[in-house]
Recover the amino acids of this structure.
């Protein structure tokens, strides 16, 4: 039989204090949002909207502005934690379109060329942010939390 003190020690190892959860959400938001905004959103500003891929049939220019908007604006919103869950929705959608349509003929895992893997990793992160929210270290919490 385990003693009550060993159970409480195990519970302390398993439990996650709220500050640690908020720190994890901050790292997740800033990492995913920053990499997406800088690495993808800014990079797409150099692309030609007229020749941008149109994987869902809404027109090249609308696809372009949708991708740039979700990646650049949505990524920055995640970084600062403003309208976080709302920003995660187009980011998640964009990454699923990238993985399932744009890279449909590519392998799942990276092996030296294009692959579904990066878009799927981003999609998993955005799904987590959508479900978990921004945490207390966000503008959402400052502006909208009930006091």
């Amino acid at each position: 039989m385990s003693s009550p003190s060993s159970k409480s020690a195990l519970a302390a190892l398993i439990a996650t204090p709220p500050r640690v959860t908020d720190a994890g959400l901050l790292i997740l938001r800033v990492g995913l949002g920053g990499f997406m905004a800088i690495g993808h959103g800014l990079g797409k500003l150099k692309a030609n909207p007229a020749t941008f891929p149109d994987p869902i049939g809404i027109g090249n220019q609308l696809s372009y502005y949708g991708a740039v908007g979700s990646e650049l604006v949505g990524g920055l919103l995640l970084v600062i934690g403003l309208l976080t869950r709302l920003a995660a929705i187009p980011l998640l959608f964009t990454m699923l379109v990238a993985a399932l349509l744009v890279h449909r003929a590519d392998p799942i895992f990276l092996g030296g060329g294009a692959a579904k893997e990066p878009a799927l990793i981003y999609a998993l992160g955005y799904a987590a942010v959508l479900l978990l929210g921004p945490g207390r270290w966000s503008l959402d919490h400052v502006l909208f939390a009930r006091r």
Summary: Residues 32 and 125 are 7 Å apart (CA to CA).
